[in-house]
């Protein structure tokens, strides 16, 4: 679904630097495993976007893949510009549930393999966050997992323009979360963005504009980790 506005040109109406970042010790592998093994009481901050289409809702899953390096990173993709849903946007690997998928994790693993060539043997699923419903009608289950050292990725050029990694600590610091608002078809839409200045696959500096559903699911992960 093509956008009628450029989210990067909208004014920032708020920055959440009053909220604490997730402590560095809580972003280590052991701490993350313990958090998912014994989840605390918590409530996701954002669960549903205003609908922009009348089509029937569809179940989907995405993989929030955490890569333990010198610091923990998150695998993200830049979608190609010709896709019907969310073209050109930054997202997690993922897609629609298929009848043959055993569960939400199976969907996320299958889609990650199809989109970025990530082998399931290198993925260690930790758990899932509550569903997030997009304005395009997808009811998305975010599946959180570690990827073991030695994994490789190879983007499907039809769906994925680029695969990159962003630091989890940066994404889990609300001082980096921006708030925006726009009215579309008479409905006010508020959304988050998390702009990150990284380096692309050619080694060139680039700003990655993470926003919308991807930013909201990262915000829910933040709420889970600070609960």
Compact overview of the structure:
The protein has 227 residues and is of the alpha+beta class.
Structural summary, described in words:
- With 227 residues, the chain is of the alpha+beta class.
- The chain has one domain: Nucleoside Triphosphate Pyrophosphohydrolase.
- Helix content is 18%, strand content 35%.
- It is built from four helices and twelve strands, in the order βαββββαββββαβββα.
- Strands 2, 3, 4, 5, 6, 7, 8 and 9 form an eight-stranded mixed beta sheet that branches.
- The protein is globular.
- 32% of the residues are buried.
- The model has no long low-confidence stretch (mean pLDDT 92).
Beta content comes to 25-35%
Sheet with most strands: 8 strands, mixed
CATH class: Alpha Beta
Helix/strand class = alpha+beta
Enter the CATH topology name: Nucleoside Triphosphate Pyrophosphohydrolase
Summed up, the domain count is 1
The helix fraction, in percent, is: 10-25%
Number of strands: 12
Low-confidence stretches: none
Write out the CATH superfamily name: Nucleoside Triphosphate Pyrophosphohydrolase
**Shape by Cα distribution:** globular
Reading the helices and strands in chain order gives: EHEEEEHEEEEHEEEH
The average pLDDT is 92
Alpha carbon gap, first and last residue: 34 Å
CATH architecture designation: Alpha-Beta Complex
How many whole angstroms does the radius of gyration measure? 17 Å
Helix count from the secondary structure assignment: 4
Describe the SSE topology.
Elements (H helix, E strand, L loop, with lengths): L13 E2 L13 H9 L20 E11 L3 E8 L10 E2 L2 E3 L7 H13 L6 E6 L3 E2 L4 E10 L12 E8 H4 L6 E7 L2 E13 L5 E7 H15 L1
Parallel strand pairs: 2-8
Antiparallel strand pairs: 1-10, 2-3, 2-5, 3-4, 3-9, 6-8, 7-8, 10-11, 11-12
